[in-house]
Amino acid sequence: MAPLRTRGIVDRRWAAGIVLLAGTLGLTACSSETHKTTTAGGDTTVPAAKVTTYPKNGAEKARPDRGVVVKADGGTLQSVSVTANGRPVEGAFNAQRTEWRSKWALRPGTTYTVTSTAKNSIGTVSRSTSTFRTLKPTAAQTATASLDWILESNRGKTYGVGLPIIVDFNRPVANKKAVERALEVTAEKPVEGAWRWIGDQRVVYRTKTYWPAHQTVKLNAHLAGVRVAKGVYATKDLNRTFRIGAARITKINLKRHRMAVYVDGKKARSVPVSGGNGTTREYTTTSGVHLTMEKGNPVRMTAPGRKKGDPGYYDLLVNYAVRISNTGEYLHQSMGEEYCLGRANCSHGCVRQPRSDAIWFYKTVQPGDVVVITGTKRKLEWNNGWSFWQLPFQTWKKGSALS
What we know:
This protein has three domains: 2-8 and 248-393, L,D-transpeptidase catalytic domain-like; 27-133, Immunoglobulin-like (Sandwich); 140-246, Immunoglobulin-like. Helix content is 5%, strand content 40%. The chain has helices at 176-181, 355-364, 393-397, and strands spanning 2-3, 9-10, 20-22, 31-32, 37-39, 45-47, 50-54, 69-73, 76-84, 87-88, 91-93, 99-102, 111-119, 125-133, 142-143, 145-147, 158-159, 165-169, 183-187, 193-197, 202-207, 215-221, 227-229, 232-234, 238-244, 248-253, 258-263, 266-272, 286-291, 294-297, 299-302, 315-318, 321-323, 330-333, 351-353, 370-374, 378-379. Strands 28-27-26-36-29-37 form a six-stranded mixed beta sheet, with no helix packed on it. The longest helix is centred in the last third of the chain and has 10 residues, at 355-364. The radius of gyration is 28 Å and the shape is elongated. 40% of the residues are buried. This is L,D-TPase catalytic domain-containing protein. It comes from Actinomadura rubrobrunea. One of its GO terms (cellular component) is extracellular region. Pathway: Cell wall biogenesis; peptidoglycan biosynthesis.
């Protein structure tokens, strides 16, 4: 079945904004300090280490995407501290400790203080302090981005092992590499993953294999200061923490008209079902790896491409419906054709269940749970909803700007 609009109670999607502002570009330059020379005994003179900071001391329109660089000439850096409004800036030294670089972009329109020390070969300490300000965008252009998971409406709950991380922008992203470098995903139980761009306004993170169950995952999108496009900078980071719950894998065989739900590897439910009748393409359930995306009780469903009075037209309120694709496929309660359950495929494309099983599935499902359907001639498209698992991981990775 294909949904038109939902009436009734439906879980709302989550969206959190990141404002992107366009502004003029500021030039950066180096600055240096004057240091005294010291002696190493006899008449040998050893110059003090020279510390140079980029952007230069007093800069007013430093480009935030270029970050901070501190270099020591004639010695090694002992310490570097970069702060803004009392908050430290993360960075790292090179192997020789002659250079320090900030890890992420800086915030636009913000004043930074850089304090550093260096030593020359005989231990004489040089100190340097500088202050600069990143450019403040003056143009009125703005853009927003969002994570398109069901997060806010699922706050405090858990997510399935197939969950993707989706970031949407409301305007094209020209500098995809810079944006992708700013996206950091960490997990208690690490597993390989990669970002893939789907057009110019969406980037999706998918793991190579399903997330290991029962763990915490974090997304730190260090977007503030990233030059998204010419003259356009992000001004806010986005940090989210979520929990991966039990590994819920649902397997549906529509040749046998059976569904089995496995929780952490153990069969939790065996259910007689009925899938799409196959009389038309839209009435054929897709075979492939689906993910549960949202749910509603009830959901209004109408016949795709048909109007009232046409053969096969329907307009129904369906109870306990869990969406698994963008083409109107749901798992839901049977609508008066119980005789088909476990025997034949009689639906308009959805997977129907007995009422008690549909209620159980609805109440226990997590966003991102895996639903694998087999037994039909229509293959699920990889970009139909959250069907990203339809692509082999090696193919998936080719969509990264950093591949």
